[in-house]
Amino acid sequence: MKMYPNVLLTTLLFFISHAGLFAAEITLKVTKRYLNLPVSQQAERGTMQFTVNKTTERTFKIRLATDKPEYWVFCDLSALKGKTITLQYSGDAAGLRQIYQDDKITGQDSLYREKNRPQFHFTSRRGWINDPNGLVFYEGEYHLFYQHNPYEREWENMHWGHAVSKDLVHWQELPIALYPDQLGTMFSGSAIIDYQNTAGFNKGNTPAMVALYTADNPDKEVQCVAYSLDKGRTWMKYAKNPVIDTKAKWNSKDTRDPRVFWYQPGKHWVMALNERDGHSIYTSPNLKDWQYQSHITGFWECPDLFELPVDGDKNKTKWVMLGASNTYMLGSFDGKTFTPESGKHYFSTGSIYAAQTYANIPVPDGRRIQVGWGRIPQPNMPFNNQMLLPTELTLRTTKDGVRLFSVPVKETGQIFKKMQSWQNLSAPEASQKLQEFNNRDGLRLKTTFKLSHATSAGLNLFGQKLVDYDMNSNLVNGVFYSPEDMTSMEITADIYIDRTSVEVFIDNGAYSYSFARNPDAKNQEGFLIQGNNIEVKNLEVYSAESIWK
Ligand code: FRU
Q1: Which end of the chain has less Cβ packing within 10 Å, N or C?
Q2: Where is the Glycosyl hydrolase family 32 N-terminal domain (predicted)?
Q3: What's the pTM?
């Protein structure tokens, strides 16, 4: 057995606890910042419980490795320094013996340089992530909270993880914001800044950052409140949680993902909440007492609701209601009821799910910035999934009516440096020019194809179709897309290639999609432009700088 001298193992014994659940336990004095825990996906999930002074400090499920760990996860024990904790585990004790304390996490030295670590998309150091939560800008920081399992690369034990950025590009992961509690695990939700102290949580001149989230337990899902007075670093849960409990009303467990914002005309808070078959609207004067107002069917999970100018005209606005698939309706909203006038429509497909937009973007900026969860597997990594690039959403008039457009926020431009650009190439010429970039680590390509026959045009990378435009059927990578001017015979693509994912923005964001990289190992071609006598009108190649430097 490998020995870790810095671990103070005072007890290691097998025993049957009073509940009969825990087969093994160790006791240790916390002397370092992190507890490193070995994980193997082959091991069964067991229940781990930490006890401090006879009080349960946390309980979670983990696949403790009994022999060689596949990877390591960690707990930040800063808050427990000097205390004695007992770790009890329902599974094999061999796993417990490998747990050790250190001021570094296992693998710290190769952090963000792992083989399949995305270089310009946010990922957590360890564990699983899904939905972005509580997106709020406050005092120069963009907060990114997210659904997080710190203990495994698969979904379980939902916490709110936390990261911040000053520019929406470079992220710093912070300690976990919300831990599971007696009401359940921490499902998705949103955050706002309560400048007017409507909830009474503010302290002096410091307004509370208030999060509304779902607590999920085997019986039901309820809506809860937590607040922070230190820029989201530490959180207090509201003593009278839950604030909404509607399982009986809907005869359904599915009531979750509160999205809250201030409705200025009515001077009250609005919550869009997914309940069973669609999104409900609730209102509140104080973020604690909520009144049901209305419901619109046809949406599943993670509501978002906001007002946007049409073609930049502040006097002409529409409200956008979205669900987790990022499909949306356009309509009007009076503070209590959303009335749809068109939809559902789509503007982005593929790996994106459960996207949310930022709250509290300062007025002179006023952008509607969306971050989506990229359901991108990260093969053989101690972490999984990623966030997609933050995008700016706008409403524009098209031949089909008003539609959402989405392009990466301008801040992303700083990491992409133009290396080459060409005009008016044939497909074979363009493929040839791209050869030197076949194996480049991180790349952005901008291109415009002009078709000469109403057939197809595309770009492959090692056999995988990054862009596949079928003009006859109006399909882009299998999804219906009809350019604004069909007769132009042109299509543009802005393509972001990271280590494990690709994001593509067609025609300035009229349509976008994302997917996992899946090169054909036998394919030798690298970049290949395809099409029946197409012209590559423009081709620009940009290097991509890692955001983790
Ligand atoms: C969407 C979702 C939410 C839920 C969360 C749980 O991906 O299912 O509805 O709150 O994930 O992790």
Answers
A1: N
A2: 121-399
A3: 0.95
